[in-house]
Amino acid sequence: MSARDGAVPARPLIGVTGRRYRLGLVGGADERYGDRCADSYMADFATRIARAGGLPVHLPYDTDATDVCAWLAGVVISGGQDVHPARWGGDTDVVRDVDPRTDPMAHDPARDEYEIGLVRAALERGIPVLGVCRGLQVLNVALGGTLVADLPPGSVSHLSAEAAPTDGTVDHVVTFEKGSIAAGLFGERTTTNSWHHQAVDRCGTGLVVTGRTGDGVIEAVELPGAPVLGVQWHPEWMKSEDPTMTWIVQAAARLLAARGERTHRSER
User: Fold this and answer.
1) Which DSSP state fits 41?
2) What's the whole-model pTM score?
3) What CATH code is assigned to 11-267?
4) Residue 254, SS3?
5) Cα–Cα distance for residue pair 213/159, rounded to 1 Å
6) Tens digits of residue pLDDT in 134-187
7) DSSP annotation of 230
């Protein structure tokens, strides 16, 4: 039944990715379970997605990317550790021989594989995608792009010492391209927070740069003609409301409405 038949429109299901680590890393955890793993997700994503009208769901690595996209109306690829350089042709000598289950900031090939597969499956089905920080980089790598392995010090501070949540510092101003999704959300420019030492180098197939800081570092990318946005800052940790969180929910709602209309027409 569609909304025009009097049914209450469904809230869009938004999948959010996270990371996996051993329970022994959690202070006060029972040592008997220390070798077991927990899946961890940043609650601020769920809170803001729900506030914007969406239904947040957390996606463990075991969730088949193709199958879960049959249910989802939106996908958020969250922040975290660096993407393994083998995924984008970088220097693998920097990779530490550390189990990511014992160090949440170590490279995690299983997470890379899952999130890259999820991005590709979502794009194939036309599902809106929001990539946040690492998530922007995953989006880029999934489409064949490369990364800057380590940003040199410059006029803009990208690896901020500020604690979350914060709206950032005056030097971190992002300017957007006219006509882009980002410009429609923020206008010509905005100040954001920043916690990253890597960045997009060469864009993947179809991606275009729509936002940069004054030093030229890429802060926003989009896929023209598709509901796809990657941002290098953390909208879930902006002290003020960040419109990208509302954008992913509204884009997902539009997809859900379009699915309903197609179903309604096929039933007539």
Assistant:
1) -
2) 0.94
3) 3.40.50.880
4) helix
5) 13
6) 999 999 999 999 999 999 999 999 999 999 999 999 999 999 999 999 999 999
7) E
